[in-house]
Specification:
This protein has 148 residues and is mainly beta. Helix content is 4%, strand content 42%. Bound molecules: fe (ii) ion (FE2).
């Protein structure tokens, strides 16, 4: 798996500073393109969702220290998702108010991928994580940046 990080958009209401947190810095690529996202399935309550929705819903964990939020997105957290060459998560996106933060590209040899980025966002900012299964489409979850 590798990660594509997006430069902050100057028209955003607030700035987003992306701090790569990868052991191999060379695997992080700064870019401005963003995958096309069409009508994701919003899984509002994955713990009470069907197995189908729960296995595709991204799980978002946020830990705030000072002004930096460490956001971890896990796939297959609620219910294990297949991770075979013909059925796997192709990509993940983390965004705030439609402002892209990071785009992770999945590979089928990674089981239950876990992705972490650090950003500075104000408390109350809504974070969206999207997970795209090559067979079943895109699924979305939301979380709110808590107070430190
Ligand atoms: Fe799937």
């Amino acid at each position: 798996m590798y990660c594509l990080l997006f430069a902050p958009n100057s028209t955003a209401n607030y700035s987003i500073i992306v701090i790569p947190k990868y052991e191999e810095e060379k695997r992080v690529i700064i870019m401005t393109k963003f995958p096309t996202i069409s009508a994701p399935t919003f899984v509002r309550d994955p713990e009470n969702a069907s197995d189908y929705d729960a296995k595709h819903a991204p799980y978002i964990e946020i830990d705030v220290i000072d002004d930096i939020a460490t956001i971890t997105v896990t796939a297959g957290y609620y219910v294990a998702h297949p991770n075979d060459p013909d059925h796997f998560f192709e990509w993940f996106v983390l965004q705030a108010k439609d402002q892209p933060i990071a785009h992770f590209v999945g590979m089928p040899e990674v089981v239950n991928p876990i992705m972490t980025v650090e950003v500075n966002l104000p408390p109350g900012a809504v974070i969206e994580a999207l997970a795209h299964c090559n067979l079943h489409g895109t699924f979305k979850a939301e979380a709110v940046i808590p107070e430190a």
